[in-house]
Amino acid sequence: MKLIYTHENKLLVENARNLLQMEGIETVMKNEFSSGAAGDLAPLDTWPELWLVDDTQLAVAKTLIENMEEQANGPDWRCNNCQEINGAAFEVCWSCGNPA
Question: What is the structure's pLDDT at 42?
Fold first, then answer.
């Protein structure tokens, strides 16, 4: 098994896990509930980790995660329906549910 992704935000790690799962790539999440140990452990040691089960899928998994990060770091967009500003990671408007 190889560590494929880690981040302080558990939702981002879960998003990566879901993305890989939709592509048929099996992963295991570690440190899922360890954030309460921050203070006794270094904060970095409590971040959730996503581990790849099949090392032969490493290149595909890395590409998918890199694409996810690029999309999340893109420009914000304005909803055509309600004019609300949405972060690049949102595919639908958080306010009215209209697609990007």
Answer: 65
In CATH, what number is assigned to the domain containing residue 41? 3.30.70
Query: In terms of C-beta density within 10 A (0-12 exposed, 13-18 middle, 19 or more buried), how is residue 70 classed?
Result: exposed
Show the domain range for 49: 2-75
For the chain, what is the domain count? 1
One-letter amino acid for residue 45 of the chain: D
Q: CA 95 to CA 81: how far, in whole Å?
A: 10
Torsion of CA 74, 5, 17, 57, to 10 degrees: 110
* 91 within some domain: no
pTM for the model stands at 0.68
